[in-house]
Amino acid sequence: MNKIPNRQAICETLMAHAEADKDIVALCSDSRGSASMTPFFNAFPEQSVEVGIAEQDLVSIAAGLAACGKKPFAFSPASFISTRSYEQCKVDVAYSNTNVKLIGISGGVSYGALGMSHHSAQDIAAMSAIPNMRVYLPSDRHQTKKLVEALLEDRQGAYIRVGRNPVEDVYSEDNCPFEMNRATVVREGDDVLLVACGEMVRPAVDAAALLEAEGVHATVLDMYCVKPLDTETLLKYAEKVKAVVTVEEHAPTGGLGSMVAQAVGEHCPKKVKCLSLPDAPVITGTSQEVFDYYGLNAAGIAKAAKELL
Amino acid sequence: MNELKVMSYELRQNVLDMIISGKGGHIGGDMSVMDVLVTLYFKVMNVSPDNIYDPDRDRFVLSKGHSVEALYAVLAKKGFFPIKQVISEFSHFGSKFIGHPNNKLPGIEMNSGSLGHGLPVAVGMALASRMDGRLYRTYVVLGDGELAEGSVWEGAMAASHYKLDNLCAVVDRNRLQISGSTEDVMHHDDLEARFTAFGWHVIQVNGHDYDALFAAFDEAKATKGQPTVLIANTIKGYGSPVMENKAGWHHHLPNEAEYQQITADLAARKEAALHE
């Protein structure tokens, strides 16, 4: 069982580069512990900025730093950075084209029983609707590292959502194929296409194994790049299969499912089933209990796939 | 003769012509903030078309982005783009010269328009200056109605927390906003006490008096260990009695008679300034 959450992988990757690249700056809004960024703040105090519990300030200050050539990574719970700071993300980051990497930590229903105030089930929709904003949801710690390394090389803003808890590896240190803005094909099969993002990729992979045991061959796409959506890879595989299932830790509207259905409907109409959280405050529980309740697990995904075929 | 004061009336005429051409604009705040902008660009900041990529240039953010017409007039006078082009294209279909600052234009650092963003952005710029060991200063101009935005005070808190003495804010205190008097809409009469309580050095200044503005910016530069705010007491619509101190002129489009009268008033004030 992997013990390293994706947020910690971000910290470790930034720490590996911060000594050589003094332009890397981390900003937190009293969130360094939640973000696993305490080691960075301790090791690189001159490259760390604490803004207090002030998420709007967090994003604007990061934008000001970026406008002067710094490479800021702004960390705050996904629920707050994506909606409390939404206008700052829109105007100061996307519209002003500043190189701010917005890190939404403890995304989706990571905070479990803390309730809807702390859940970010709208962030994919909200952020994706902003022109010039990119949206990434890495699936495991290895991909998170590759993604952060790629983001350090570019000069454009982006929103990255990671969860709070460790997730089972999808890849390994030696085998983590990654191309920026291209979905990763985790496995191939000609019956059904499973498209997942973030921490729903692992259950989708497990669902494919369940399906395989029943003679159903599934392709699994890790669509970590929700925006820009890799429609080329999506359509290449969608054309081959009988049906498409999308899986995301997000509201049913405006997220991965909506985008995949839009692309598939326009270019190669197929049955598409979108698995997501409900359009309602979710039931109280740990994130895993919530996933299980709504069928966002291997069994639920496999069941949805079989119903389509 | 005060050359900058003379120039300010010419630039106010540019603003008027822009707004007539674009069939709209925020004329009242353009006129109140003009002398502050002229002072910054022609006396205080080391910003010119020759150094737009120089990492040591001073940084400027117009947080009250709706006064962009005044900024366009000043930037054009500095040589960033031709004023004739601005006047003929402002707010026209497909124009680069839109109704709020956009950093696709040379000389504009950050986009604005949503109020309450500029001060925290400027905090980031001032922090970057310090991190990189540079000496440039960061200036940000806010409206007084804008001060009701909570994000302004998040930025104010951070600026004093980090003792950003390389940051200078200016409040265009014209006492009017779109719905009427700032004191009726959301009062700010204790503005000096508020900024002081947030850890800022506060300077009250007549925002139309060039000598006073020069002195105030000098004092800001000399102030160490804390950020400085100039409360620039101004007259909304400054330049003609037709529009001065009238809330309706926040974004009023002058009719032909008003245009002629304002033009005559601006010319008369320029003439008077020539002989001061």
Please, could you describe this protein's structure?
The complex is a heterodimer of chains A (309) and B (276). Chain A folds into 2 domains: 6-161, Thiamin diphosphate (ThDP)-binding fold, Pyr/PP domains (Rossmann fold), CATH 3.40.50.970; 184-308, Rossmann fold (3-Layer(aba) Sandwich), CATH 3.40.50.920. Chain A is built from 12 helices and 12 strands. Chain A has helices at residues 6-18, 38-43, 55-67, 78-83, 86-95, 123-128, 141-153, 201-213, 231-238, 256-267, 287-293, 298-308; strands at residues 24-28, 48-50, 71-77, 101-105, 134-136, 158-161, 184-187, 192-196, 218-222, 225-227, 243-247, 271-275. In chain A, the strands form 2 sheets. In chain A, strands 2-1-3-4-6-5-10 form a 7-stranded mixed β-sheet, sandwiched between helices. A 5-stranded mixed β-sheet of chain A has the order 7-9-8-11-12, sandwiched between helices. In chain A, helix 10 (256-267) links the parallel strand 11 and strand 12 (271-275). In chain A, helix 1 (6-18) packs across helix 7 (141-153). Chain B has 276 residues and is an alpha/beta fold. Helix content of chain B is 45%, strand content 12%. Chain B has helices spanning 3-22, 27-44, 68-78, 83-89, 118-131, 150-161, 182-185, 191-197, 210-222, 256-274; strands spanning 59-62, 138-143, 167-173, 176-177, 180-181, 201-206, 228-233. In chain B, the strands form 2 sheets. In chain B, strands 1-2-3-7-6 form a 5-stranded parallel β-sheet, sandwiched between helices. The mean pLDDT of chain B is 97. Classes of the chains: A alpha/beta (309), B alpha/beta (276). Chains A and B meet through helix 3 and helix 5 of A and helix 5 and helix 6 of B.
